[in-house]
Fold these 2 entries.
Entry 1:
Amino acid sequence: MQTKPEHPAGPGGDSWLRCPFVSVPAIETVGLTKFYGEQRGIEELDLRIDPGEVFGYLGPNGAGKTTTIRLLLDLIRATRGHATIAGLDTRSQSLEARRRTGYLPGELKVPPRSTALAYLRFLGRLRGGVDAKAVSELAERLGLDLARRIGDLSKGNKQKVGIVAAFMHDPEILILDEPTSGLDPLRQQDVLQLIRERAAAGRTIFLSSHELDQVEHSAGRVGIVRDGRLVAVESMASLRQRAVRRVEVRLAQRDADVSGLERVPGVTDVSAEDGTIHLVVEGSMDALVKELARHPVQTLTSEAPELDEIFLSYYGDSHDDD
Amino acid sequence: MGTDVLTETVRERAWSTLWWAVGLAAVVALTVAFYPSVRGDAALNDFSKNLPESVRALFVGGELDITSAAGYLNSQIFALVAPLVLLVFTIGHGSGAVAGEEERGTLDLLLAHPLRRRDYVLQRFGAMTALLVALSVVLLLTTTVGALPVDLEIGFGKLTAGTVSVGLLALLFGTLALAVGSARPGRTAAIAVAAGVAVAAWIFDGLSHTVGALERWRPVSPFYWALGKNPLRNGAQWGDWALLLAVTAALVVVAAVGLERRDARQ
C-alpha cells in the first residue's frame, strides 16, 4: 500500500494528523471479515486509504462492496478483524467516526410522507445542525425540488436527497455506495463533478461501483473485489493500461487487407467480415488507430470496458478463458 | 441524548394519531350516548348476571351490574374497547419503530448518523409514550364530557384512574413489540409476539375467574395488574401501576441492548 509521509493539510479539518510525519489513514481495515451464517460477505480485507484520496471500490453486484461499507458505518459487526475511520475504531468509537463521515446507501430508502427539505433538516439536526445554505446550494446544483414530498419524487430525485444528505455537512470522509445509480447521464456528471470538487478540497472519498466508468475520472486508486475477496489494488492509470475495450470498425472498402491488425500490440480477437472488424484492445488505443489510419474508416465504435473484462485480465492473461 | 428522533416521530405520526383519536372519541361518545336507554334495564342486567363467569370476565370486565354508571363504562369501554384500540395503536408503533423502519429500509441511513442506537430506541419509546398519552387524554376527556348530559356519575378521579390503567397496559405491550423488533429483525414477529402474549394474558385473566387451578396464578397477567382491581370503581392502583411501569422499563432495556448488539438488516 502506498504511504504519503508528508500529506498536505487539506482545508477544514486535518485533525487526524496528530503527528506531522505520519498520517493517520482516513480508512483502514485489517483482516476485516464478515460472514452471514455460512455465507461470505467479505473476507480478510486489508485496505489503507490516505486522507485526501479518492478510492474506487469496484466489483460486481454481490461481491462484498456493500458489506464492507456497512461494516465501516457499524451497521453490521465484523466476524473478525477491525477497521478505523480517521483513526477511530469503527466499533468502539463509532459515534465519532460517523460524525466525520457522510454516507450514501446503495439502496436509499427515505420516508415518503416528509418533504425533502423537512427530512434533510431532520438528518441535519442529528448532526447537531447543518448550514441551510449548504442544503439549498446542493439541491440547486442537482436540480432537486426541496419542497416536494419524497413519495412523489422519481427514483433519481430520491437519490439526490441521499446525495445532499451525504454532502451537506461537508464531511472529512465520504462513503458513497453506487452514488450515480438511478441518475440520468447528465446528473451523473454533476455528481461526479461534486465528488471531484470535494476531493480537490482535501476530502477522502470512498466510492463503490460495479462500473469502471463511474469511478474512472475521479478515483486515483481502485480496489477490486470479487466473491468477497480483494483481488487487486491499483492506480487508476495502471488499471486503464490494462482495461480492455471491444472495438467495432467499419471500413469503406469491403475487401481491405486487415491482417496487419493482428500484429498491433495489445490487440486480440480480431475477426473481419464484409469490411466490419471486431477486435479487443488492451490499454492504449494509439497503435490501433495508427494502424487503422491506413484504411478508409467509416465508423469506429468502442465500448466502455466491462468490469468482468477487466477481471479477465487479472485471472490469467488469456482473454479466452471465462 | 437529543430529542430529534422523538419530535420527528411525533410530527410524522401527528395526523394519523389524530384519526385514531377521532375514532376513539366517536366510539366513546356513541357508547356513552346509549347509557340512558340501558340504565334501569333489568333484563339486560339479568342477562349479564347469567353469563358464565369467564365470559363475563372477558367481555364485560367481570361486571355484575352493567347498568350502573361505573359498571356500564367499565364493561363497555374500559374493559374491552379502550384496551383494544390502545393496544393495537401501541403494538403498531412499537413494532414499527425499529423492525418496521428496518423493513422499509429507512433505518440504515438514520443509524449511519451520529446517533447511538440505544438513544434511537429510547426516543422512539418516548414518541410512542407521548402519542399514547395524547390518545389517553382523548379517552379521558370524551368519557368525562360525554358523561355529563347523560348523568353518568363516576367522578373525574376514577375516570383518570381507569384511563391510566388502560394506558399503562397498552404501553407495556407496545414496548414488548418494540423489544422484540429491536432484538431481532422482522416486524411480523414483533407484532405476533406482542399481540399473542396480549391475547393469551387476556384469555388467561378471564379463565382464572372460573378455573380454580388458575385462580392463584391470576396475578401474573398484566391484564390483572391493569384492570383486575377495577380502578373505575376503586380508584388509583399505585402498586399495580408501578408493576406495569417496572416491566415496561425492563422491556425498554431489552430493546436498547438488543438493537445495540445486533446487525442492522439492509
Entry 2:
Amino acid sequence: MLSQRKTRFRGVSLALVAGLLSACGAQNLTVTEAVIPPPLMDPQPYRIAVQYSEGMYDYTHKEEMLGNKQWTIKLGAANKRVYDQILVKLFDDVSFLGPSEPVPENQYDLVLRPSIQAFEFAIPQQSRTEAYTVWIRYQIEVFNRFGTRVGAWPINAYGKSGAERFEGEAAIQRAAVLAMRDAAALLTIRVAAQATRAANDKRGGPDDPALAEGAEPADLAIIDGDASVAETTDNGGEDPNPTIESAEKLRYE
Amino acid sequence: MSNLRRLLAALTATGLGLGGCVTAKLEDSKQATTGISSGESIVVMPKSYHLGNETERSFTECIGQKLTKGSSGLSVMPNEQFVDALFPWFEPRTAPTDTKSLPKLMQRPGVAERIAETGVRYIVWLDGTTDRTGGGGSLSCAAGPGGGGCFGFTWWETDADYEASVWDLKRLENAGSVSAEVSGTSYMPAIVIPIPLIARTQTAACTNLADSLQAFITGDEST
C-alpha cells in the first residue's frame, strides 16, 4: 500500500517537473506562406533580374526571452515567395537568378538583390498590450544596366495581430504574414515611384555624366523618396530616403 | 438534496438568462446628405493599427452583419475582399487617413474604376474598443473529497466606446459620424456555484451603432 502511494507520488512529481520544464522550454513555429493579391498597378516596362541573398531561401529566427520560452521561428522561403509573387506583377519581364549565379552584362534594365536584415517580434508579456507584433527589415540593392549600384531600398515591414482571435504561435504567425504583406505593399509603392529613375541611371555606362568633360563628381544619393512615398510611409516610420554607401559595381562573370 | 439541486439549477439558469445593467449613449453628427441606391454597397473597416489600437475584429464583423438585417438592410462587402481588390492602397500602412487624400487616391491608375466595379459607395471606419474599467469584491472556491463550491461576490465594469466615420466615395467627402458609448456593470454572486450576471456592453454597442448607422446611411438623399 505504502509502495503504491510512493509510486503515485513519484508519478505526480514527474508530471509537475515535466510541466514546469515545458513552460520554460522551447516554442517552435513555422510561418505559413502569405498570399499577396495582384497590385492595382500597371507593370513597369523593364527587364529585371532578381538575385536573392541566401537568407531569403531559408530564414530562421531564434530568440530566448528573459523568463520565457526559447522561440524558434522558421520563416523558411516564405519571404522569397512573397517577393516572387509581387515582383512578377510589378515588371514586364522578371528573371530569377541563383545567389551565386553570374549576371549577364547589359541584359537587364535593373538587377535587384533583396535580403533580410533583421527580424524582431514582441509578445504581450513584453509589450504589456494584447498585441503580438513582428518587424521584418529587408534591403533591396539596386544595380543599373551597367552593373553600377545605384541605390538600396530599405523595406521596414510591420505586422500586428490582436490576441482576440489568435494566441501564442498562431498570433505570431498571423503577425509575420501581415508583415510580409506590408513589405509587398511598400515594395509596390517604391517600385512605382523609383524604378524608372533607377532604370534610366547612366552611371557606369558610356554616357556616364561623370565622364563628361569638366563634369562634377556624380551625386551618389540619386534615388530619394518622392512626395507620394514620403506621404504613404510617414505613418509607419518607414524611411522614404534610401541611402547609398558607395557606387559599387555588380560583378560580371 | 434533490430540491437543493433543483434550486441551484434554477439559480444558474436565471443568472445566465439575466444580464447586468447597461446604459447607452448614442450621438450622430451629419455633415452631408446621405442615401444609397439599390446597386450600391458599403464596407466596414477597422481603423488602421498604425494609428493606435485596432477595433476588435468580432465587433467589426458584428456591425457588418447587423447592417444587412432589417427592412432597410444594406449590402455590405466583406472588408478583406475590398482591401484585396484595392491592394496596396487600403493596407494598414497605406489606407487614407482623411477624406482630403481621397481625390489623390482616386487619380491613381485603376483605383476609381476598381471602386466602381465593387459598387462600394460608403466606407465606414470603426474606431474604439471595449475595456474593463474597474471592479471589486472577492470570490473563492474550494474543493474536497466530498465535493466543492464557491462563495463570495465580485463585480466589474466595462465600457464600450466606438465611433463610426462614414466616407462617401461618390462625393469624396466625409458624410459624418455616429458614436456609441455603452457602459455596464457585471455581477457574480456565488453560493456554492457562481451565478454570472453579465452586462453585454459590446453587444449593446454593436446593436445600437448598427441601427444608427443604417438610418444615417439610408438617410435623406433622393436616389
